[in-house]
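Re: the request from the purification team.
They wanted to know what the chain is likely to look like in 3D before they choose a buffer screen. I agreed to run a prediction and write the result into the notebook, where they can find it.
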Amino acid sequence: MEPVNLTQISHFFLLGFSEKPELQPLIFGVFLSMYLITLLGNLLIILAVSSDSRLHTPMYFFLFNLSLLDISVTTTTIPKMLVNIQTQNKVITYAGCLTETYFFILFAGLDVLLLTVMAYDRFVAICHPLHYMVILNPQILTCAFSTCASHLSVVSLFYSTILGVYLSSAATQSSHSSAIASVMYTVVTPMLNPFIYSLRNKDIKRALERFLGW
């Protein structure tokens, strides 16, 4: 009989960001803060849009779903990362890795699709305002102009870091730089979205004030 390799992979070893023990509390605190900001900011947008009937329009429908996806993407990866940092255990099971990868690809793919649709939505609002007026009123049209530049910046950050990670040569890219680039589109972008679409949007700010009773 020919020899057969019956070795089965049951665990994967996660590289992490640093091997230095003294840096682990700092890394844990940074990612925990970013995760909580992402959750709080996106939850506030979800509550504001769902509680105010005046925000039940296409633009805010996109924003509502973007917030849901941002929460889903970060929740898929960050809690496991925090547990690994806190316990100093960098091992993930094969089943856990497969499950996390599946949901991450699913939510990230939907995030890419939604950002593309939102970019086209802003293109129509600016380049074809007369057609867009059929759907949205002048007040809302004035808002998405105020957020267009910020939206394009986040979309550019999101796509450029993804392309940098997955299209660059493995021989010329270190695991450390790849991890940093991955953080940009998995953690930083979802954290920035609430600031872009709430702090620079008068309708969202008014809805939040009404919801919070200010």
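For the purification team: The first strand starts at residue 11 and ends at 13.
Please add any questions underneath this entry.
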